[in-house]
Amino acid sequence: MFKKSIILTVVLLFALVSVSASFAAEGPQGNKRKGKYTYRKVCKACAEAGDTESASPKVSPADKKKAEWSAIFEGKDFGPTFGCEAHWAKLSDKDILDIYSYFYSFAADSPTPATCK
Asked: Which are the contacts of 66, defined by CB distance < 8 A and separation ≥ 6?
């Protein structure tokens, strides 16, 4: 009897930890590494088309907080922040989600803010 109660307790604890870990995921669920690459690719394409002065990104994730990035990406209002509206319009929803994940994960109020250099 004692053995069964210990096994049951361990199983319940494992289930509780698994469920709580799945709820701990915060923010967009895209690929932030691919998002960084895609964002840099868009910046380079903008520069080659003559829409920006340089191929280096003018906006970095640390420029805004998570809530601000959420408002921009959920509203799909990229023009005022990033420029190059034509290039952003060509991106797939998955590419935009990946870029969103990159900016959200490394925002100014994240544990590890990132700048594009």
From this structure: 27, 104, 107, 109, 110
In the chain, the DSSP E strands lie at none
Whole-angstrom distance, CA of residue 44 vs CA of residue 11: 52
Burial class from Cβ neighbours inside 10 Å (0-12, 13-18, 19+) for residue 32 reads: buried
The model's pTM is 0.74
- Residue whose structure tokens are 């340089």: 54
Q: Rounded distance, CA 69 to CA 39, Å?
A: 14
pLDDT at 32: 93
Alpha-carbon distances of 9 from 1, 19, 20, 22, 112, rounded to whole Å: 12, 15, 16, 20, 37
- CA 111-112-115 angle, to 5 degrees, is 145
Query: HSE of 102 in the Cβ direction (CA atoms, 13 Å)?
Result: 21
Rounded to the nearest 10°, the torsion over CA 74, 112, 41, 76 is 10
Can you give the pLDDT at residue 107?
93
